[in-house]
Amino acid sequence: MLFNAQNSTTTEWEQLSCDRVDIKDLALKCLVCGQFHSTEDHWKFMADMPSQPDELIDDLMRMGLYNQQALDLADSISKADLQKALFLKMAGRGNPKRERLVNELIKQAGGLDEAFAAAFGHKSEQFFNDTLSNSRFSRRRFLRNVAIGAALVSLASCNNQQAIEEEPAGTGPLEKTDLKVAFLPITCASPIIMSEPLGFYEDHGLNVELKKYSSWSVVRDDAIAGDLDAYHMLAPMPIAMSLGLDATAFSVKLASIENNNGQGIAVANKHKGKIKSAADFKGLTIGIPYYYSNHNLILRYYLAGGGLNPDTDVKTPVLPPPAAISKMKAGEIDAFILPDNFTQRVVYDDIGFIHILTKDIWPGHPCCAFAAGDSWIKQHPNSFRALNKAIIQAAGYARNLTNRIEVARAIAEEKYLNQPIDVLESVMTGTFSDGLGNIKTVPDRIDFDPYPWQSFATWITTQLVRWDYLPEEKADYKTIGQQIFLTDLARELAEELGANPPKALLKVEKLRFDTLDPQQPQAYLKEQIDKFGI
Predict the structure, then answer these.
(1) One Pfam family for this entry, by name (predicted)?
(2) Which fold has domain 178-262+365-438+447-532?
């Protein structure tokens, strides 16, 4: 049928008429692109299509697809920028999400010229031959260029666009490509760290300098001072900082979750056989990484469920995570609740054992997050979007169990975690020794779901109130979740990456001792206090 349409003659069209109108004047649906024009006109249009981007844009101008007033407004930008803007409007078909995707594809191809070459030009054969290679980077490049080709074929849609509009936020040039991002040397930071050696930052046009820190308070201080572009933070920190709970109020947005689960309570070997439940921790010293951490909040929840008052029955000093091993070995602490590379390290060094994984207290709980200051995001919306997208992509890669060994080896180096590969593989694969003579298999010991459920913020806020970190009258649960957790953006970026994230903002959170209905946080908090007395 396409052959017949392509080779139909003018005479044949002229013979098709009726009393009211000539058939060739009707709006017919094109068999090629589905738009309303004749298939013959489509083929003629494609036959005359220029092969070079410059010629294409010039031709579109001569065809009158863009009015002169709109073009006059673009005099201040370069011809290359104008060509890109025109192409985005045509390929994007007026859909902002589609324009963002096409813009991202152009960037990943290395520019508009490279995108055309990838789809139609002399490099096409080279890109498609990448399928013969088994390397991850070649597979990724092949799939990327297939997507680029698919986007560019939109050029044949023959859609008219009336004017050049302002590019949607987050789709223009990156305001800043050289970025400084903080991290602590823990497995929770895997997506932030692995994005450097595995190339996710580079894929999104970024040159990221990872800055290694030993404590959360220093990350907080440097964030407030403006010495960093973005940060690896504990999930409660953006809430605490935005509300001014531990310093001057500084608005921070939680952009995506770095890891779920991935923590545990480790105990010194001298307590073997004595610690069976939460109640057995009475009188002990248990290290925590920061007051505004889920480690602290989950520990308090666990101890209270066992009948202990975390403020009077135990001591909970704050210690930098890298110092935990030496302090336990020296007998300065009896236990700690920290990321799994440290809980596993005490087993590896034969100085302690794993009492419980935090996933057994709150399955799927968030631990760490990727965050940035609100003012920085507003000044660098495109760079922030690209950075968050790279980290969400990395989290998706790390979530696949078949990639865990690769991730473990990528983050083991001295400049990153500086941990034995055996320790990291035990954490990442979930097959590990607990220090009590058992080999356990827990595939979700650590997980990497980047979706920032706002119900996470709800539970965190209930516990901040419960333990007197946040006055109850300031606990506007809904507003805290909506204003600090960028759930909608995380969903949008995940969809652009081909993922299928949830549509909901909230979900019921099932914990060891109770269940949080995020629509009823006050009732949940009252129930806890009534049941446990604190």
Answers:
(1) NMT1_2
(2) D-Maltodextrin-Binding Protein; domain 2 (3.40.190)
